[in-house]
Write a structure and sequence with these properties.
This protein is mostly helical. 73% of the residues lie in helices and 4% in strands. The protein has one domain. It has nine helices and two strands; from the N terminus they run αββαααααααα. α3 packs antiparallel against α4 and α8 packs antiparallel against α9. The longest helix is centred in the first third of the chain and has 31 residues.
């Protein structure tokens, strides 16, 4: 590492790689974390109101903390984006991450997917994901259609195999479409990562609850796959 880099920046070791980060980036990271927290607040507040309508348990701790998990995750992802990308791309990545995080938390807690939240994610993906991935505007439309189609086939096969049962919930089709819209040209890799993580979560649930009838949270794995695609594709 150059001496000048040592003087003017902070040295971080991420995943075994030494990198020089300009102190200004750290300042932007703090600002982005605050913005991410606020975006998480808006998303969590919307979801909290929807959950009240459906009589689902609340996670709110007052008007400023509608969901600490969502707000903290949004703040962390926004800060990481500010360090990794230029400001414009970081802003887009942080915004796209919000519905993915919200759906992850809600689905994991309640096995519930709010169509309006997923629809917001699809809309943001179609409008902005091409910029996050430095791709083409139509990539998100293709990604959403491909992901929805693939999971629709899996859903129908599951219904046939389990004779009318639903090993894959219909809400997972909506989540897949959202992930495809946000992942764009990276949809295939996002779904692979998501399916693998879903398998890990499923095994964990089986072990924790010691029952093969325990619910399997596919949505969180898919959404995390979408998050990974924002930073790695």
């Amino acid at each position: 590492m150059h001496l000048e880099c040592r003087r003017k920046s902070v040295t971080l070791d991420l995943a075994g790689t030494m990198a020089c980060v300009d102190p200004r980036q750290l300042g932007f990271a703090v600002l982005f974390a605050l913005a991410g927290w606020c975006a998480g607040w808006a998303s969590a507040l919307l979801t909290e109101n929807l959950q009240k309508h459906d009589d689902l348990p609340s996670s709110a701790h007052g008007p400023l903390l509608p969901d600490v998990a969502v707000q903290s995750a949004c703040a962390l992802v926004a800060a990481i984006a500010a360090v990794q990308f230029d400001l414009a791309r970081a802003a887009v990545v942080a915004l796209l991450a919000v519905p993915l995080i919200q759906v992850t938390v809600t689905d994991f807690r309640h096995r519930y997917v709010y169509t309006v939240v997923a629809a917001i994610g699809i809309g943001l993906g179609v409008a902005l994901a091409w910029f996050a991935h430095q791709g083409e505007p139509l990539d998100s439309v293709k990604g959403a259609a491909a992901a929805f189609g693939a999971f629709a086939v899996l859903y129908l096969l599951g219904r046939l195999i389990y004779r009318g049962g639903e090993p894959l919930a219909r809400g997972d089709l909506t989540i897949a479409a959202m992930v495809g819209a946000i992942a764009g040209a990276c949809t295939a890799s996002a779904l692979v990562v998501g399916i693998l993580l879903s398998g890990v979560f499923a095994i964990g649930m089986l072990i924790a609850r010691r029952s093969r009838h325990a619910f399997m949270p596919y949505g969180p794995g898919l959404c995390i796959g979408g998050l990974v695609s924002l930073f790695r594709c």
